[in-house]
Design a protein that fits this description.
mainly alpha; 3 helices
Length: about 90
């Protein structure tokens, strides 16, 4: 698939990118190459191949869900610079 100069400029406009004149042609070539590689993927014989989210079957190691000793609320808040009604008080970020 051949990408035109107009395609590059349209994509740049849609993604709010500003391209210098000397960047347009290399971007056009890169986009053409990327789309050609994607088209080649469509030619792979994938009948009967199950979709997957990961290439390898790796076990997911999880620790057992066990009750363990932990801090009390009072201990957890002991060094808090500010607290309010038993909760950490932090500065607003928004």
């Amino acid at each position: 698939m051949e990408v035109t100069r107009e395609d590059v400029l349209r994509c740049a406009r849609l993604t709010d990118l500003s391209l210098r004149e000397e960047e347009i042609e290399p971007m056009r070539e890169a986009m053409t190459q990327l789309l050609n590689q994607a088209e080649r993927l469509n030619t792979l014989p994938l009948e009967g191949v199950e979709p997957t989210t990961h290439g390898l079957e790796l076990p997911l190691h999880r620790r057992p869900d066990e009750v363990r000793p932990s801090f009390t609320q009072k201990e957890a808040l002991a060094n808090a610079p500010k607290q309010d009604h038993g909760l950490f008080e932090v500065p607003k970020v928004l």
